[in-house]
Amino acid sequence: MKSKKQYRFKTEAEFKAEFGEDWRWKIPYSFVEDMDHFLGTPYRNEMIPSPNGSWNASVRYEGWTIGLDMLTTRRLPKILADGTIAKVGMKVLWLQSIFQHTGIINRIYLEDKDVNNILIACTCGLCNGINTWNVNICDVKKYVKPIPVPSEECTTQ
Questions:
Q1: In a domain, 82, yes or no
Q2: CA distance 136 to 133
Q3: What is the DSSP letter of 85?
Q4: Is residue 117 in some structural domain?
Q5: Are 49 and 57 in contact (CB under 8 A)?
Q6: pTM across the whole model
Q7: Any domain includes 124
């Protein structure tokens, strides 16, 4: 089957988001570590696997069995420093000089492959919600609310 769409292999972050931490073994035909050089790269084959369950659900590609679950037509996502896929509206944190900021992603620049920045509306107390920052995505992590640690004074009976 020929396809006009431009396929690429999913990234590790995309596999984790779809299949969980044990993604390598949950994907039909598996995705072993020796295949990692394919992650995020263009799929350069005219034969596209069919959905699972059909008679030609896999194809051979450079010596490996490839299933449709390994491929996507979506743009290559921007990945945060902690391995999370960046999404507009996501709450994030980053360091600017010595200050830790929290904010909401307003824009992800996908058009220019050389630009690795995202626009963030700062929500921290230091900026009082009036600043927006153009931050390198490699310096940004998904915000995870800290878990309060009980004080030693608290005791349960």
A1: no
A2: 10
A3: B
A4: yes
A5: yes
A6: 0.65
A7: yes
Residues with Cβ within 8 Å of 42's Cβ and at least 6 positions away in sequence, in order, are 6, 7, 8
Question: CA 88, CA 78: separation in Å to the nearest integer?
Answer: 11
Give a yes or no: residue 81 inside a domain.
Answer: no
Per-residue pLDDT in tens (0 to 9) along the chain, 157 residues: 454 678 999 999 899 999 999 999 998 888 999 999 999 999 988 788 777 656 567 888 899 999 889 999 988 888 888 888 888 888 998 887 788 888 888 887 765 555 678 888 888 877 776 788 888 888 889 888 777 766 666 555 5
Are 62 and 95 found together in one domain?
no
Total domains present in the chain: 2
Q: Within its chain, how far is the Cα of 96 from the centroid?
A: 23
Same domain, 64 and 98: no
Q: Measured between alpha carbons, how far is 30 from 35 in angstroms, rounded to an integer?
A: 10
Q: Residue 66's domain spans which residues?
A: 8-72
**H/E segment holding residue 15:** helix 12-19
